[in-house]
Amino acid sequence: MNLSTVRFNKNDRPAFFRELRRRVNQYFEDEQIDRHANVQMAVKTVFMVTLYVAPLAMLLFGGLQSAALIVLLWAVMGLGMAGIGLCVMHDANHGAYSANPKVNQALGGLINLVGGYHTNWKIQHNVLHHSYTNVHDFDEDIKKGVMRFSPDQPARRGFYYQAFYAPFLYGLMTLVWVFVKDYVQLFGYHKRGLLKAQGQSFARTLAAILFHKGWYLAITLVLPIVILPFAWWQTLLCFLMMHFICGLILALVFQPAHVIEETHFFKVDEEGSVENSWAVHQLMTTSNFANGSRLLSWCLGGLNYQVEHHLFPGICHIHYPQIAKIVKATAREYGLPYHEHPTFTGAIKSHFRLLHKLGTDTYVSGEGVGAAKQMTA
C-alpha cells in the first residue's frame, strides 16, 4: 500500500485539534515569544556540539599517551553524539530550530558529523514515524526483523528472550546506521518514491551517502588508528564503544515514548484507513515520561515530552514544558488519553515489560491504559 492511500479519520473529534492549536498559538502570542530556539537553546547547542568535537580534537591533535584518558574521551564522544542527535539535529530537521531554513539545514546536517545521513533520517522519522506512529508496516521505528515491537508482527521463537538481549541490540543502533541501514533505506526509499518526494535522485543520494560516510570514517576511525598510541584493534574497540553508548541512549529515550504497555498499535483497514484522526492517533500511540525533571528534559532535548513533540513537531523543544500544560488540559477536556510516566525508570520498566509480553506472545492490548489514566487523574 502506498503512503498516499493511507487516510486518517477526519470526522474523529476534529474540534479537539482545532481548539488545541488555537490555545497553543494564543500562548505564544500572549507571551510574545517565538516558537523557535532562544538563547538557552543556543547555549545548549554549543555545549552539545563541543561535547563531541572537543574530545575528537584532543584525540587527533592532543598527543595523548594516557590510555585511561583516551578511553574516557571516546566515551564522552558517545555522549556528545547522543546530545547532538537529541538536542540539536532533531529540532533542526523538523524545521523547529529556526525560522530560517538555512539555519535548520546547517544544524540538521550535523547528523552527518556523527555518521548518519540527513535525507534518510527525515524520511524515516519525519515522514514515516511522525505520520504513521505505531502503524504496522508504515512506522519503520517498530518495523524491525530482529525484535518484535508490535503485536501485529508475527510471533517467533527467537523473540522469546528479546527483553534480555534488547539492550545489546540497542547499543548497535548507530553502528547499523553507519554501515548498513542508510544503504538499505536508499534502495527502499527509491523504490517507494520517497526519495523523489524529497527532491532527491537515487544517484545523487548514493553519492552523498558515500561522501559523508567516507569523511566521517576517515576522521573518526582511520585517523585515530594512525595517530593514537594503540593497536588498531584497540582503537576500533573504542570507536565501537562510542557508538554503543550513543545507540543505547537514543534507544532508551525513544522506545519508552511509543513502545510501552499504555500505548496502542494500529493497522490500516482494507480501504487504507486508520480509525482515529491524526491528532487523536498521536495521543493513543505516544507517552511522556519524567516531565518533572528539568535536568532530564534539558539533557534529552525535551523528548521526554513526546506527546507535545508529536502534536507540534514544528515547535522547538525548549517550549515543551510550557505547552504541555495546555495539551494535557485540553486532552482531558475532550475525554482523550494523555499517557505519561512520572519517572524515566517507570517508563523503561513498562517498555521492557511490553517487550517480554510481545516476545512471549502474551500481550493484551490496552493492559496498561488503566494505570496511565490513574497517573494523570
TrEMBL record:
Q: Transmembrane segments in this chain: where?
A: 41-61, 68-92, 159-180, 201-226, 232-254
Matches recorded under Pfam families:
FA_desaturase (PF00487)
Cleaved signal peptide residues:
none
Query: Which GO molecular function annotation, any one, does this entry have?
Result: oxidoreductase activity, acting on paired donors, with oxidation of a pair of donors resulting in the reduction of molecular oxygen to two molecules of water
Q: Which UniProt keywords apply?
A: Membrane, Transmembrane, Transmembrane helix
Keyword Membrane assigned = yes
Q: Name one GO cellular component term.
A: membrane
GO terms of biological process kind: lipid biosynthetic process
| InterPro entries documented for this protein | FA_desaturase_dom, Fatty_acid_desaturase
Q: Where is the Fatty acid desaturase domain?
A: 69-340
What is the protein name stated in its UniProt record?
Acyl-CoA desaturase
